[in-house]
């Protein structure tokens, strides 16, 4: 009975939002959503869904739980250093304006990290697109106000130049905010723009099924220009990247082959 309740919930969510929860690892997703449902006092997923459709705040909380909006600036700093010192300078030698995309950008720490690096490399005119499925996360990203915990790995020169501290919060400088275009997007359903020099999609694929990952890696490869780079998370190594038209360029960086 419990499984039927959850399966019907998956169907209703897909009909209502186009979000296909069956593409996520079931055990993880079911556990997280059961915890939220019980915390809110609903005994079934049917009653939880009905409440979600009437209560916008509850719906946003569902999205937040589903997408695991945990992010920090310069997450895994040594990987961002590789991007800053190797891949972006290579791209900028060919063109002073590069086209970048932060996919599943959560509350904005990742695209702002990228925008700061581009600004330091005198590539402020580059395009940075940042997308996420969660309206609540995107609103937070646009406000660009963060806790001191989020900035703990930010290098001192960046912290001084691109943030304004107010008590225990850090506000992103306005020029940097204007350099990013935030947009709602469902990675599994929506079509992607093309011609990207760089796609950053980190710590997201671990929540998807193998079938969903396979679909997304093909879509990301098609969105990259030849020689473009896909930057993934520290637990998201791509096995057999050649099947997607990619090759390993460095640990957690994959290049679209020129063929």
From TrEMBL:
SUPFAM superfamilies: Chemotaxis receptor methyltransferase CheR, N-terminal domain, S-adenosyl-L-methionine-dependent methyltransferases. It is an enzyme of class 2 (transferase). Its EC number is 2.1.1.80. It comes from the Bacteria. PANTHER family: CHEMOTAXIS PROTEIN METHYLTRANSFERASE (PTHR24422:SF19). It catalyses: L-glutamyl-[protein] + S-adenosyl-L-methionine = [protein]-L-glutamate 5-O-methyl ester + S-adenosyl-L-homocysteine. Residues 1-259 form the CheR-type methyltransferase domain. It comes from Paenibacillus oleatilyticus. SMART domains: MeTrc. PROSITE patterns: CHER. Keywords: Methyltransferase, S-adenosyl-L-methionine, Transferase. This is protein-glutamate O-methyltransferase. Gene3D superfamilies: Chemotaxis receptor methyltransferase CheR, N-terminal domain (1.10.155.10), Vaccinia Virus protein VP39 (3.40.50.150).
């Amino acid at each position: 009975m419990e499984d039927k309740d959850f399966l019907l919930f998956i169907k209703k969510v897909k009909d209502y939002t186009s979000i296909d929860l069956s593409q996520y690892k079931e055990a993880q997703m079911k556990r997280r959503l059961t915890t939220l449902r019980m915390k809110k006092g609903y005994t079934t997923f049917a009653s939880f869904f009905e409440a979600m459709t009437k209560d916008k705040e509850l719906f946003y909380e569902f999205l937040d739980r589903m997408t695991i909006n945990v992010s920090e600036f310069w997450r895994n700093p040594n990987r961002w250093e590789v991007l800053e010192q190797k891949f972006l300078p290579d791209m900028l030698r060919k063109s002073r304006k590069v086209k970048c995309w932060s996919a599943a950008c959560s509350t904005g720490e990742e695209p702002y990290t990228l925008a700061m690096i581009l600004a330091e490399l005198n590539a402020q005119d580059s395009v940075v697109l940042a997308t996420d499925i969660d309206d609540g996360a995107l609103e937070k990203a646009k406000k660009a106000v963060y806790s001191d915990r989020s900035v703990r790995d930010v290098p001192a020169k960046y912290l001084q130049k691109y943030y304004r501290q107010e008590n225990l919060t850090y506000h992103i400088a306005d020029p940097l905010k204007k350099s990013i275009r935030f947009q709602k997007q469902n990675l599994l359903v929506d079509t992607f723009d093309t011609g990207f020099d760089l796609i950053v999609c980190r710590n997201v694929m671990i929540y998807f099924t193998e079938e969903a990952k396979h679909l997304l890696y093909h879509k990301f490869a098609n969105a990259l220009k030849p020689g473009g780079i896909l930057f993934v998370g520290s637990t998201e190594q791509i096995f057999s990247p050649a099947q997607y038209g990619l090759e390993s360029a460095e640990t957690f960086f994959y290049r679209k082959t020129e063929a």
